[in-house]
Amino acid sequence: MKYKVTLNDKVYEVAVEQGEAVMVNVSDAVAAAPAAVIPAAPVPVAAAPAPAPAAPAVAVSGEIIPSPLPGTVVVIKVAPGDSVKTGQSLAIVEAMKMENDIKSPRDGIVGQIIAVKGSTVPTGAPLLTLQ
Known about the structure:
0% helix; 4-stranded antiparallel sheet
């Protein structure tokens, strides 16, 4: 069965087969235009808190290590050029007050660090690359 799920203004098309979910397509959600409302009196607006820094847009090379879930990058435990082993901790992404250890899928050398500590990342966002 296929479902469309909207999360953080993105529409995810998800195919589910025998308890296994596979993301098929991701697109931006299109919000309907709200009806015009004229307030009776001006309402003071409080300044919104500054958002966490987003991951910068960079050209990547090597195998991308993505975030397996949406969350906040708490720690990047490696640096470019570091040699890593299979299962070694690369970063920590916090989601729903739980810290999730992102581990290396194979032996390799860290190429680029893409995510920024403190940034919010969606599912599948690149965190770093392995050479």
